[in-house]
Amino acid sequence: MTLLKTCYHVWRLGGQRGFFGRKRYDFGKSNLVELGQVSPERPVPEHIAKPKYYFVRNSPSSGEGRPEIKTDRQIQGMRDSCKLAANILKKACTLAQEGITTDEIDRFVHEEAIKASAYPSPLRYLGFPKSVCTSVNNVACHGIPDDRKLMDGDIINIDVTVYFNGFHGDCSKTVLVGNVDERGRYLVQSTEESLNEAILCCGPDQPLCVIGKAISRFARHKKLTVMPAFLGHGIGSFFHGPPDVFHFDNDYPGAMKPGMTFTIEPILTLGEMDAEILEDAWTAVSVDQARSAQFEHTVLITEDGCEVLTVPD
After folding, report:
1. Coil, strand, or helix at residue 197?
2. 168 annotated ligand-binding residue
3. Which of 20, 75, 270, 311 is most solvent-facing, going by the fewest CB within 10 Å?
4. Is 233 one of the annotated binding-site residues?
5. Which H/E stretch holds residue 92?
6. pLDDT tens per residue, range 170-183
7. Kind and range of the H or E element at 286?
8. 159 among annotated binding-site residues
9. Shortest CA distance to 156 belongs to which of 253, 33, 5?
10. Residue 47 assigned to a binding site
11. pLDDT (tens digit, 9 = 90+) per residue, 17-30?
12. C-alpha span between 235 and 158 (Å, rounded)
């Protein structure tokens, strides 16, 4: 997930207003999430191949430049890493139950990656302290796992990326914890559907901007809001790179070409588009405290369409 450079602290375009004042939203009923205690970094065994940023802190990717067109060998490497990430995510989602802490989910994802001889990509990326992102309720993305226990009615996004045999595979899913209210269930289902709508637009020589147009159109139809500060990204031997994939309506240049791999990862919210980064420099929350949901796949553009790489067994 890439954060727009203009949103270092707050992305605030101003609330949507109608003739009689600020637009009213139905947030439903949910628990407000605050930061908890973060446990120490989990160790990575010596034999696990590590990305360069494990040893030297990296700088953010600009998203600029020519997207990489992968060879057959690189594509197979992407298939392997993405399959592993998807299988770990599938298992991790079963842990999302009342009373489980997000730190326990982090431990599980970390251990599953190590067991598969893979590196949990979020760890030390730009200084991120844990091995997975866990974003609950009003946390839009980049939530740091901590000692907060999941509660009945929560929704949680689990974002898994692994570095396996030299390639990163990236995917995420939002799941329900216990008895989630109707608005929360509607948000989660609609966000997954928006991702599927975007994937249907993908194919050779299609403009990249059709992704954002499809998601925006679908969100408006569902009376939800796209949070525009957070982007999809190119991925391969690098975690983040070109192209930037915008999830809002845009006419930015760029076209999909066979051999390109990138993520599509829209965040939709029940409220307004504004987000802010908390004092841990990572956790992005909705300014109006509305819940959001996110789903993510890594896709490969092929000669006759696209292939979703992050499908579990």
Report:
1. helix
2. no
3. 20
4. yes
5. helix 72-93
6. 999 999 999 999 99
7. strand 284-286
8. yes
9. 33
10. no
11. 444 455 779 999 99
12. 19
